[in-house]
Write a structure and sequence with these properties.
Structural class: alpha/beta
CATH topology: TIM Barrel
Order of helices and strands: HEHEHEHEHHEHHEHHEHEH
Strand content: 5-15%
Distance between the termini: 14 Å
Shape: globular
Strand order of the largest sheet: 1-2-3-4-5-6-7-8
Number of domains: 1
Number of helices: 12
CATH superfamily: Aldolase class I
Bound molecules: phosphoenolpyruvate
Radius of gyration: 17 Å
Largest sheet: 8 strands, parallel, barrel
Helix content: 40-55%
CATH class: Alpha Beta
Length: about 260
């Protein structure tokens, strides 16, 4: 359970919607209107398809909801058709950027090395990268979770200085994404504690205690609060349920309740 005010104050609960390649601008604007009321104590971030980022930023101009990108280019500028840089996202008004989502790894061939470059680009542009890690079903069944996560963390964060920088980690077991089979809150907690231990070895306790570790994978309105109750679960990355305004609103409300509980 979350009790330590000094730690939690640095780790405000964060809920991030990954809308992937879904929706249209009317639907997305209607959807945010339903959960804006829960975005004051908890931090709520929406990641729309690129083409809608500007519209979303305009629509949310006087709202506490923040906007993030689902991906960024490894490159800053040049002849890279179809790419968008971290600097451009920041210039548009985004605060966050997802890096290394398992769909990017599986479908678009990204790996820890490309993630390392993207995390560097995001930090240079003062965007907060949300670095996604997670084991496959096969790796989970073979008991390789910690080994896989350690490798994903150490390879992608190698040489990355986090002094005065913000980074979030999203633990997204691949077997839980879009399957309806979320990890249990106990598995999430054990795994997040392991991730924090790794971060502690890499960056020291002071930095590791400030890094928010989000859980992602079949989060819904029923399991959200059970996840958020766990000491090392600092937020949620939500795919499918973020497209359902009623579900997502409930998930944000759970985070708001968690924030209230820990901000007493
Ligand atoms: C995701 O794709 O990041 C995700 C967590 O999806 P879902 O919530 O649908 O499992």
């Amino acid at each position: 359970m979350k009790t330590q005010k000094n730690i939690i104050d640095q780790r405000r609960p964060i809920i991030m919607a990954n809308w992937k390649l879904n929706g249209d601008i009317d639907l997305l604007c209607k959807s945010v209107s339903s959960f804006v009321k829960h975005a004051y104590l908890a931090e709520v971030v929406v990641c729309p398809p690129y083409l809608y980022i500007r519209d979303m930023l305009n629509f949310l101009r006087n709202s506490p909801i923040k906007v993030g990108g689902q991906n960024i280019s490894k490159h800053d500028s040049g002849a890279f058709t179809g790419e968008t840089s971290a600097r451009m996202l920041k210039e548009a008004g985004c605060r966050y950027c997802i890096v290394g989502h398992s769909e990017r790894r599986e479908i678009f061939g990204e790996n820890n090395i490309s993630c390392q470059i993207k995390i560097t680009r995001a930090l240079e542009a003062n965007l907060t990268p949300v670095y996604c890690i997670g084991e496959s079903q096969n790796e989970y069944e073979q008991g390789l979770t910690e080994q896989v996560l350690s490798h994903q963390l150490r390879e992608a964060l190698e040489g990355i200085d986090l002094t005065n920088k913000n980074l979030c980690i999203a633990y997204e077991p691949v077997w839980a994404i879009g399957t309806g089979k979320a990890a249990t809150p106990e598995i999430a907690q054990t795994t997040h504690a392991y991730i924090r231990k790794e971060l502690c070895e890499m960056y020291g306790a002071e930095v590791a205690d400030t890094i928010r570790i989000m859980y992602g994978g079949s989060v819904n309105k029923t399991n959200a609060h059970l996840m958020l109750e766990q000491a090392d679960v600092d937020g949620l990355l939500v795919g499918g349920a973020s497209l359902d305004p009623e579900h997502f609103s409930e998930i944000c409300r759970s985070a708001e309740e968690t924030a209230k509980g820990v901000c007493l």
